[in-house]
Amino acid sequence: MLSRRLCALLLIVAPGLLAAQGAPTQSELDAISARGRALAAYQRAAWTASSQLLAQNPDPWKAQRYVAYHADSGWVVAFGRLSAARDTFYVSHIGIPAAINGARIDSLFEFESFAEPGPDTDYLVRAARAMDHAVISLGATSRPYSAAAIPTENGDWFVYLTPAADVGNVWPLGDDVRYRISADGDRILETRRMHNGLIDEATSTRGDGARLAVGRHRTALHDTPEDSDVFHVLARHPQVPQIVVSRHFQFVIGVDGSIRLAQERETAVGAAR
């Protein structure tokens, strides 16, 4: 027969044991890391190429929007416009990572411009349609959002909508959505709201003036980190690790985008609250 003291101890520890049964595997965390790294690389290429092309004063009618995609030369960014029938993407400029000392870098782009925009009726137009559907689904917002369309392994699209920074040296985290959209870009198959609420996180120092060594935030919607958590760590400067606190677990995202399970939230001693 169990003693009263042992029964009490089991009642304290049991929630943690039950939570451990639902802990994500390392392969699941690695998959989140891979998607988050892809999102960060997509947005970094899009932001960098857009700012460098804008300095060249392109025709705004021809270069209305962009689609980034991964190629042998790295993340390439195609600029152009979608036809009124939404069946053709007319490419006016293509930004390719510059080759410096035999290596491609993502901080400088070389541009190929077309006097007569070239039509694309496959990858670029499907990606553009997928992003349009996501933006329409999200609806009107009080701040601008950045969109990214990344193909999944089965040919569908993951379309990410993340809030854009509207203050210098502050990186917004939250109020973001990931859509899974059909390969043709015409049907939303799944909607995943990644965070509820928004944090405008300063990049360099805490309120007392000390340099920030590690970030920390809670995610109330799911019990795992999100793709955009990894994106947030990789996009902000200076980069610092981030602790993500869910209902049952704590995770640490490293500056390389890797994720590890730090500890269970529910433990017999020193439980986080």
Secondary-structure map:
Blueprint: H1 4-21, H2 26-54, E1 65-71, E2 74-82, E3 89-100, E4 103-120, H3 123-138, E5 145-151, E6 157-163, E7 170-174, E8 177-181, E9 188-193, E10 198-202, E11 215-218, H4 227-235, E12 242-245, E13 249-253, E14 259-264
Parallel strand pairs: 11-12
Antiparallel strand pairs: 1-2, 2-3, 3-4, 5-6, 6-8, 7-10, 8-9, 12-13, 13-14
Any overview of this molecule?
The protein is 26% helix and 37% strand. The N terminus and C terminus are likely disordered. It contains four helices and 14 strands. Helix 2 packs across helix 4. By secondary structure, the protein is an alpha+beta fold. It has a domain of 180 residues. The strands form four sheets. A four-stranded antiparallel sheet has the order 1-2-3-4.
Q: Unreliable segments (pLDDT under 50, ≥5 consecutive)?
A: 1-19, 266-273
The overall pLDDT, averaged over residues, is 85
How much strand content do the residues show?
35-45%
* Helix/strand class: alpha+beta
How many strands appear in the DSSP assignment?
A: 14
Shape: globular
Oligomer: single chain
Q: Strand order, biggest sheet?
A: 1-2-3-4
Helix amount:
25-40%
**Tally of contiguous helical segments:** 4
Order of helices and strands: HHEEEEHEEEEEEEHEEE
Major beta sheet summary: 4 strands, antiparallel
Distance between the termini: 33 Å
Radius of gyration: 22 Å
